[in-house]
Amino acid sequence: MGITMILSLLSGVALFLFGMSLMGDGLKRVAGNKLELILYQLTNTPVKGILLGAVVTAIIQSSSATTVMVVGFVNSGMMKVAQAIGIIMGANIGTSITGWILCLSYIDGSSGIAQLLSTATISAIVAIIGIIFKMFLKKAVYKNVGDIMLGFSILMVGMQTMSGAVSPLKESEEFVHVLTMFSNPIAGIIVGILFTAVLQSASASVGILQALSVTGAISFATALPITMGIGVGAACPVLLSSIGTNKNGKRTALIYLINDLFGMVFWSIVFYSVNAIVHFDFMDTILGPMQIAMMNTVFRTATILILVPFIKYIEKLVFTLIKDSPEDEEEQADFDLLEERFLAYPAIAISQSHLAMNGMAKKARKNIFRALSLLEGFSQDKFQKVQEKENLIDKYEDKLGTYLMQLTGKEMDASQTKQVSKFLHTISDFERLGDHAVNIAEAAYELSDKKIEFSEEAGYEMNVLEDATREVVDLAVNAFWEDDLEVAAKVEPLRELIGILCDELKLRHIARLRMGKCDMKQGFVFNDLLNNLERIAAHCSNVAVAMIELEASDFDTHEYLKSVRELKNEDYMQCFEMYEKKYNINGFQSSKKNKKKTVSKED
C-alpha cells in the first residue's frame, strides 16, 4: 500500500467526515430547536422514545449527537433517565440508516438510466443546487438547505475517493491475508472499537468498511466482529460528553455503552457458540456495501428488540453502578416534599415548602462557602461543583416557584397568604445567592489561570470581608431555617457594615493603583469580588427583612428598610458597633507593626 494510496484514502475519510458534519449541522439548523423539543415532549413511553430516537438520528446522521443532546436534557433535569433509555435505543437503530445512504455512492453505469443514476451525476446535481441555494438565496433556511446538499455531495465524493483508493488492493494477496486475520472474533471486535473510538463516528467506520468491501476481501466472518466493535467504540464521544455532568447525565451516557456492550457480548456468545456446533456455510461469503449496511441494521435492531423488555432493569443497573451519595438523596427528598396532593391542604403544603426551602438555603450557603474557599486555593473539581450546584439551586427555584404559585390559587387564611408571599419573595434571593457563588468561582478561576496575586494589604482586606460575608449568609440562612426573628434582626446591621467596607476597599484599591502597588488586572478582579460580596449581603438582608416585615405588618420591604436605617434603635447600633470591631480592616497595619516588634526581639 503506497503513500499515494494512503493519502488518497485519508483524503476520502476527511471529505466523508466533513460532508457528514456539514449535512448534519445543516439539518439541525433547519429544524432549529424543534428536534430538541420533540425529544423532550414525546418520550412518555419506551416505544415512542425508540421511534423518536431512530427518526432523529436518521435525520442528523449521528447517534452520538442524539445521545449527547439527551445527556444534556437529563443533566438539566428536563428529562428523566427512564425517558432517555428509549431514545438512546432508537439512536442505535437510526445510525444504521447512514450505511444505506452510502450505498447510493456505489450506483454506477456507463449509459442510459444507469449513467443518470450514477454517483457522479447525483453528486454533481445536488452540489450545483446546493451552491445556488448557499450563494444566491438570502433566507437563512435556504442557505441551510444548501449546506445539507453540499454536505451530501462532499460525503458522496469522499466515499468515491475512499473506494477508489482501496480498489487496487483487491489484487494484493498481502492485504487479503491481513483482512482475513480479522475473521478472528476478538481481533475484529478490538479493531472495530479502536477504529471507531479514533474516528468518533460509527457511521464513518461503517462507511470505511463498505469502501473496503469493494476489494472483494471482506467476508461475513470479517465484517461481523468489526460491526460489533463499532457500536462499542461509538460510545467514546458520548462518555466524553458526560464529563462534568451530574450523576444522571453520567448514567445516561453509560446506557449508550451498556446497549452496545450487551449486543457485542450477547451475539458473540450466541452466534459463535451455534457456529461452533453447526458451522455456518455463509461465513466465507464475500459482502458488498449493501450487505454490510444490511448486517449493521439487522445487528442493531435485533439487539434493541431483545433489550426493550428490560428497560426497567437497565435503569436499575445504571443507578446501581453510579450510586447516589447521601447529599443526592437529601436533594431528592426535598423535591419529594412538594407533593401535589398536599395542595388541597394549604397548612401541610406550606410546611412542606418551608422544609424544601430550608434545603435550598442550605445548598446556596454551601455553594457560597465553596466558592469563597476557591479564592484561598483553586481546585478544578470544586470549581465544577459550584457550577453543578448552581444548576440544582435553579431547579429548586423552578419547582418551589411552580408549587407555591399553584398554592396561591387555593383558599387560605391571612397568615397562610403572608407565609406564601414570604416564600415567593425569598426563593429568588436564595437563587441569586447561587448566581453570585458562580461569579466568585469564576473570579477565582481567573486569578488562578492568569496567576494574579493581590498585594498583602489587599489580601488581608479581602479576607476580612469574606469572613463578614460568611457570617451574614449564616445569619440569614439560620434565621430562615429556625424562623428566628432575633437572628434576622442582626442581618441588616452587618449588611450595612459590609456595604461601607466595600466602598472603603474600593477607595483603598484605587489609592494602591495610583501608588503602583497593584495593577489593572488585579483591580478588575478585586472590584468584581467586592460587587459580588456586597450583593450577597443585600440578598441576605432581603431574606431577613421579608421575615421581620411580614411578622410585623403588611409586607413592604422598602418602607421597613427605610425606617430601620433612619431610626436605628439602640439594639441596631449595638449590633453594628459589635460587627465594626469584629471586622476591622485597619488591623493590617497593626499586625505589620507586631511582626516588626517580634522580629526585633528575636534579633
UniProtKB/TrEMBL annotation:
Biological process (GO), any one: sodium-dependent phosphate transport
Spans through the membrane: 50-74, 86-107, 113-136, 148-169, 175-199, 211-234, 254-278, 298-322
Location(s), subcellular: Cell membrane
Keywords from the named record: Cell membrane, Coiled coil, Membrane, Transmembrane, Transmembrane helix
Main location: membrane
Molecular function via GO: sodium:phosphate symporter activity
Entry membrane topology: Multi-pass membrane protein
Keyword flag Coiled coil: yes
Gene3D superfamilies in alphabetical order: Phosphate transport system protein phou homolog 2, domain 2
Residues in PhoU domain copies: 359-443, 467-544
GO annotation, cellular component aspect: plasma membrane
InterPro entries linked to this entry: Na/Pi_transpt, PhoU-like_sf, PhoU_dom
Keyword Repeat appears in the UniProt entry: no
Entry coiled-coil feature ranges: 379-406
NCBIfam families to which the protein is assigned, alphabetical: Na_Pi_symport
PANTHER family the UniProt entry points to: SODIUM-DEPENDENT PHOSPHATE TRANSPORT PROTEIN 2B (PTHR10010:SF46), SOLUTE CARRIER FAMILY 34 SODIUM PHOSPHATE , MEMBER 2-RELATED (PTHR10010)
Protein name per Swiss-Prot or TrEMBL: Na/Pi cotransporter family protein
